[in-house]
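Retro notes
What went well: the complex prediction finally ran end to end.
Inputs used:
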Amino acid sequence: MAARSPASTVPESSKHHAYSRKQKSLGLLCSNFLSLYNRDGITSIGLDDAASRLGVERRRIYDIVNVLESVGVLARKAKNQYSWKGFEAIPKALQELKADGWKDNCNSFDGNEYSKVSDDEDDDTNGSQNDKSNPGLNPKSSASSKTEHRREKSLALLTQNFVKLFVCTNACLISLDEASKLLLGDAHNLSVMRTKVRRLYDIANVLSSMNLIEKTHTVDTRKPAFRWLGYGESTENCGSAHNSLTTESRKRAFGTDVTNINFKRSKVDSSIGGTLNSNFNKQKQVKYESFVHEVDRSNVEEDPKDGSKSYQFGPFSPVTVARVGASEHSNPRRFHDWESLASAYQPQYQNQALKDLFSHYMEAWKSWYSKVAGKKPIKIS
DNA sequence: CCCTCCCGCCACCCT
DNA sequence: AGGGTGGCGGGAGGG
């Protein structure tokens, strides 16, 4: 493997400083990735390019790219090539995940392990060729069980399922272990569980760098949890906490120093002078527990003029997000979608835990829905 | 000590 | 065969 890449790329002081985990986090890397590509003119992204510009190994780029693709921000174009869809694509992707979530909890025929989650929410209006395998009929579908097995445990799938948890259930807050139990089947094996939890952390880190979720902890217990922040508009006010305080405090410092270059984790640490450069502002993770309110959205008063529509993704400087947000304001329509979906599909979760959780949230949702929509709750089950 | 989660080996897919 | 992908889990940093 030859030598490590020369440190020639390091801009300032070449000395290696103390190893800091935070500076190498997936979340930060993702932020950098986003600020690097979320600008006009960007259409396609080369993984090699990204890796070198961000100063990380390819492997890390895969992690990011996989979750970004899961929420629609990116789409795979070809080997080593992704196309940038932007944050505008998130709402649609989430919508699809939502519909998807209901659907595949319906056709989970036989007692199979995990419901297969349909591929992805792929492209949109733009009808590019985009071959990929034919979605519908495919010859020996079962023969590819090998591949499918792999896919089954992919970061991408896990991400989608994780998101579905919020989106399909209207849950605002889900604790880490709740999520892991639901997503990883019942904790059969401890080590398997551990591995999966690691993945959950990975996912959560990138999702939170996009501000789709936020890390917190449950009110009662101090257990770690994730709060859904959603994509702004009509997100059922989970933490419609996109306001003053949250907005800025959550900002990550990025754009300034692009990189997670150098400083590998290692015991070798020739003394470090004082503190290292301070490009990295230490933004503390926000923790407004005051917002922590459980699912219960019964106190929603259907605020009509909320300023949430002006929400912008990520802590990016407004200039770079130019047209973002201008394209979507499909506010009310999702209600009917929900109604029809709800009555059309009877959600059937495999494991009891998921079922319980679901019905619990469903109750809350129904009352909320009836209030907001001004009609009697639809009957489910 | 336990929780987070970075790192990179190496099994798997594609060409 | 060769290179791109990405599961996986050891083990180190952080609280």
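What we learned: Residues 352-373 of chain A form the longest helix (22 residues).
What to try next: split runs per interface for comparison.
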